[in-house]
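Annex B. Sample input.
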Amino acid sequence: MAIMRCIRLEPNRSMTVDEFKAWLRTYDDNHDGRISQEELKEALHGLRIWFGGWKTKKAMESVDSNHSGTIDSATEMEKLVKFAQKHLHMKIYES
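Annex B, continued. Sample output.
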């Protein structure tokens, strides 16, 4: 059974931070409010980003400051936004 994501996103599309967070929440499969490494990997694969698994690992190493294996705080989400801007070349801006 195919699962459709509500928000379609192209990697070069400009979006606000809130839109980025809303898009990322669509990959929170267990609805726990946290983004796991596997959920982030699925999101990057959805964008057809090359080396998505490797980039996911680098993102988690960079942003998961409490080493919980998930992105679970506002600070970590801010770090993920900066990582996506710098390393994934996503155009994310403040609203």
